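Inverse folding, one chain.
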């Protein structure tokens, strides 16, 4: 019997030596895990296949029960050089392996990778920047417009089609303004994730989420200096500087930017007011010259206590001056006869000072539990002055309006993540913030009311979310509870005080199915859209003797319920959704109680609005040509009252975006961008079709340290917004031509490719957006 046990022991020992499990961790040159890489064990003598697997989302792999003596490990990933690693009976845990980016030359054209730039993952659209042509773009503003579903806006910014401006995160930190985005280099970005239907862990006010993941930081010094100049009808320029330093556990960075933007706008409009048998028509031709100067600073520092704990602080500040000089002629017609003609000169100055401080502490308490803790304080001070000179029949009239607003926000957030195992995880957290606002606006016009008010808001939120991984199927479900108490005080007339107390639960659930490269997600979520602080105030902004704008303290939040389907396979990505929104917030027109032919522009809650939406993206790399096509449609279901009857606003809106990139010899990159929008209804607003065509070329010098970009935006001057509104007894039409066309040159110098990035996660982004 003893001999038998000895024989079995020897056999087990021999088998253990020849049947070990090979484990390892695969990353790219920046230390980022490479998912879905092929790992194959080959016979070293004849390269015959033994066993294989693919890496997980964390880049890790395991080859179990493998006879590994005299074998060769082959690792492949699209866009990277193949890696061969010899293994023997002594091999068990290989550790970290790095793959190098593949760069091939074909007739002096550099081709980097061939994988699709866009893919579906858990209901989100992932844009893989690293290793693609997008990483070669000159600056972030060029990169973000390439993401499917992102479209240009009237002010030259961007938004998610049909959803408005997204909440943006950089390495899980909510950003405060677009300056942080301008500081980003596409070469430093790993991926961008667009979440069009966020779940419970995101603030209920988030219409969409854009998550930017940066490449791994390394020790060293970073310096970046940029300058740009634009020319259309007027000249504009800007400069920015960024410096960063990381040494072992300490990271530090500081940014400064200066913008001097001059613009010209052409804004003709017509308003018709129907009162009984009379028609009052106001025809106004307007041209405006604007001058915006903006200084912004940002300083942040974080420290790694150890591998699992880090703390940090960030301060950012801005000083903004917006000056606009507007000239117009207002013709007032009564029943098609000219009753009055007035020349109007409007000189507007708005000064804003802003400060924000964020403290954070992130901790990985164990392999199962991690936490994030954030404290924030923000202050915004706004001073407003407007002089309106109206001349009628050579008789001048000067109206002066002055205003001052002060806002303070105190906020905190505590978030937990608990992963019981690879199949089950929990997330939960609590948030609270306090907002205090005071404001006043006075006008020496006798027919425009003055305002003096205060508004306090306290919001408390808690959320819990569970994730269950069942192989090909992933289920996410969560609940978010929010309680909001607000007290608006009209310090001039206390009968206008408004007290609000909201208690809401926002559920979300998603069902994700991935099989053979095909990704499908069904999701449902609910959320809210709260009025901006300006919409909630009763401040009245004087335009002329016949018109002024006013807020509405009685506005309610708008609650949305969204069901969405996302699917993707290789170079095809598609999504479709249905949205139901109650208490929809939109424009309102009414006549002044003091003067019946004076029109007041304001905001109101409409009963509901519904949408059907669909988006399709096709993207395929063809050698040096990188084409992408995006199609989208939004079908609204909405009605309002016009001239005593129900007025339907159900015209669908279609958009088409065609992106073309051409990688040319000698590191040149040529781009062409075309955007077409069919118009249609956005609530009560009817838009006419508009389009944009851009072209650009860029060149890198000195091992990519110096980048020069030449861009032509809106070449054919077609980005003009013509809108019509029919509400109650008022017909309004306007053309907004912001002269978005321009020709620009931008130069960016980067001392090296090392980078530092703040790791905090501020908790007050949505309140700041409401400014």
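Residues assigned per position:
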């Amino acid at each position: 019997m003893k001999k038998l046990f000895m024989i079995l022991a020897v056999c087990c020992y021999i088998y253990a030596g020849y049947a070990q499990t090979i484990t390892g961790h695969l990353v790219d040159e920046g230390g980022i895990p490479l998912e879905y890489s092929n790992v194959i064990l080959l016979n070293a003598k004849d390269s015959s296949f033994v066993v294989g697997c693919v890496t997980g989302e964390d880049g890790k792999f395991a080859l179990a029960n493998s006879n590994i003596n005299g074998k060769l490990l082959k690792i492949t990933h699209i866009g990277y050089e193949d890696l061969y690693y010899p293994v023997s009976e002594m091999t068990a845990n290989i550790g970290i392996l790095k793959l190098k980016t593949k760069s091939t030359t074909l007739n002096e054209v550099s081709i980097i990778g061939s994988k699709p730039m866009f893919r579906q993952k858990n209901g989100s659209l992932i844009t893989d920047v690293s290793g693609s042509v997008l990483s070669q773009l000159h600056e972030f503003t060029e990169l973000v417009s390439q993401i499917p579903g992102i479209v240009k806006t009237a002010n030259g910014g961007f938004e998610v089609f049909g959803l408005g401006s997204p909440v943006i995160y950089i390495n899980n930190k909510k950003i405060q303004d677009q300056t942080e985005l301008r500081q980003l280099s596409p070469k430093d970005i790993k991926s961008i994730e667009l979440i069009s239907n966020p779940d419970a862990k995101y603030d209920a006010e988030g219409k969409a989420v854009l998550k930017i993941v940066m490449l791994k930081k390394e020790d060293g010094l970073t310096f970046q200096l940029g300058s740009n100049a634009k020319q259309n009808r007027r000249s504009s320029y800007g400069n920015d500087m960024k410096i960063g330093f990381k040494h072992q556990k300490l990271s530090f960075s500081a940014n400064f930017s200066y913008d001097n933007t001059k613009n010209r706008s052409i804004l003709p409009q017509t308003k018709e007011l129907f009162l009984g048998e009379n028609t009052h028509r106001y025809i106004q031709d307007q041209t405006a010259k604007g001058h915006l100067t903006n200084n912004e600073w940002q300083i942040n520092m974080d420290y790694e206590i150890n591998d699992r704990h880090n703390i940090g602080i960030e301060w950012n500040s801005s000083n903004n001056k917006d000056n606009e000089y507007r000239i117009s002629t207002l013709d007032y017609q009564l029943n098609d006869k000219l009753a009055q003609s007035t020349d109007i000169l409007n000189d507007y100055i708005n000064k804003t000072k802003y400060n924000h401080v964020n403290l954070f502490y992130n901790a990985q308490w164990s392999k199962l539990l991690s936490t994030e803790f954030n404290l924030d304080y923000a202050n915004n001070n706004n001073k407003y002055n407007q002089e309106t000179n109206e001349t009628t029949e050579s008789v001048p009239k000067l109206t002066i309006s002055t205003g001052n607003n002060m806002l303070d926000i105190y906020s905190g957030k505590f978030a937990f993540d608990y992963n019981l195992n690879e199949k089950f995880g929990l997330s939960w957290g609590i948030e609270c913030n306090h907002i205090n606002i005071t404001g006043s606006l006075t006008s020496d016009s006798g027919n425009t009311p003055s305002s003096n008010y205060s508004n306090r808001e306290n919001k408390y939120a808690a959320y819990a979310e569970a994730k269950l991984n069942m192989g090909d199927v992933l289920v996410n479900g969560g609940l978010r509870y929010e309680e909001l108490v607000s007290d608006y005080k009209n310090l001039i007339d206390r009968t206008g005080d408004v007290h609000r107390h909201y208690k809401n639960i926002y559920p979300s659930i998603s069902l994700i199915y991935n099989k053979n490269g095909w990704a499908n997600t069904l999701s449902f979520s609910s959320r809210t859209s709260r009025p901006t602080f300006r919409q909630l105030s009763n401040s009245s902004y004087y335009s002329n003797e016949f018109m002024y704008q006013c807020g509405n303290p009685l506005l309610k939040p708008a609650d949305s319920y969204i069901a969405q389907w996302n699917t993707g396979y290789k170079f095809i990505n598609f999504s479709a959704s249905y949205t139901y929104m109650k208490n929809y917030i939109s424009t309102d027109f009414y006549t002044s109680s003091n003067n019946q032919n004076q029109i007041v522009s304001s905001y109101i809650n409409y009963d509901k609005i519904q949408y059907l939406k669909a988006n399709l993206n096709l993207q395929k790399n063809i050698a040096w040509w990188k084409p992408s096509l995006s199609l989208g449609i939004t079908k609204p279901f909405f009605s309002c009252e016009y001239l005593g009857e129900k007025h339907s606003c159900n015209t669908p809106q279609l958009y088409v975006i065609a992106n073309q990139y051409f990688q040319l010899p000698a590191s040149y990159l040529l781009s062409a961008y075309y955007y077409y929008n069919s118009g249609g209804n956005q609530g009560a607003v009817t838009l006419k079709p508009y389009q944009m065509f851009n072209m650009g070329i860029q060149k890198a010098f000195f091992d990519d340290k110096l980048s020069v970009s030449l861009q032509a935006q809106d070449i054919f001057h077609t980005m003009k917004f013509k809108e019509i509104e029919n509400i109650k007894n008022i017909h309004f039409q306007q053309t907004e031509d912001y002269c978005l066309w321009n020709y620009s040159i931008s130069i960016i110098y980067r001392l090296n490719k090392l980078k530092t990035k703040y790791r905090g996660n501020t908790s007050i982004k949505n309140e700041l957006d409401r400014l």
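The radius of gyration is 29 Å. Helices lie at 2-18, 140-144, 179-182, 533-536, 765-769.
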